[in-house]
Amino acid sequence: MEQRFTIPEGYQYKRPLGRGHLGSSYVLQNNKGSYVYCKEILKESIGNKEQVQKFKERIERIRSLNQKYILPYFAVLEYDNKLLLLRKYLNPGNIIEEAPKIKALGPNKIFAMWCALARTYHLLHQNHLAPNLIRATNLFFYNGSNIIITDLYLATNDVNVMVHNPSPLDYSFLAPEFIAPEYEPDYKADNWSLGIILAYFLTGEIPFNTKNVFTTLQQINTGTLQYAGEVSPEYDTIIKRLVKVNPTERAELSDFIKMNDTLKTRGSKRSLPRNILSPSPVQYSELQLNLPKSKPLESIKNSRSPPANYLSLASYMVIGGQSTDQVLRTYDAADIPNYRCRQAVPQLRTSQLPPRKSSQFINDL
To answer: What does the record list as GO biological process (predicted)?
Structure first.
């Protein structure tokens, strides 16, 4: 049988993996006996010469990040009409194949794992690598507690993965801006996808009706979620803050990363309090803060920062869609000694989170 694949020097062809977005993929084996994943992409499927060059530069930029949860391509081999991308071959299953195991972790471990995934995409956004084509088949569940990202291709509004495979697994994680032209996709498209992924982790099912393509696309365009299982109120709020049709209304990933970092300090009590993530500001309009009676009201009102016990409370709260790094600083003299919160004032908003140091994690795969 005639071999249809291009085999680079020093490698042996082992088996095909099928055709996906941009081209075919297959397994190779190098001279040391290690298995290698190979992606074969026709240049014409990327675009013109300039677009091909930008594609190669993006692959190199991702590799240079040396991020422990990204498995990058270690080589780009260029031929007259095609590119061959090479990376390590992963044995673990993707998140679709491992959905039951992920769901069995329980909400708290799932949220911690999801936050690590969100941190990785936040790092990509900091390096202007967005929007990304996020597909469930490119996310691998590794070592029982980690998600490894592979094949980070740039997603644009002219990319139509349904042409290659009209499967819900391809389009159900895409933001509405890839389906309807009302908004230009940017990094907030990744935030939508991560909201859908969190719902998928918690329930083991895509949160849309996937029996009918038209219905699925309609639910995506309207942001209508349909959970297959129970999702507690606190996680439902997180998901719905990300899954908003208007990209400008979607929450920042940094909000939830910082929330998770704060929860880590609570050790075994890291579960999210049920009333902390309520989307309704009404619930907190009567929130009472037990501040010291000995501290005069004026000294509190004139202070540049709220009392320490108040800061610790505000660091956990998401109120009415406000960010977790917003601090409530207005008090009512009529409520002494229990001062009532009246409005939220943005303070010390931090959109940049320092990337975690890389490790030998990927090298150990």
So the answer is: signal transduction
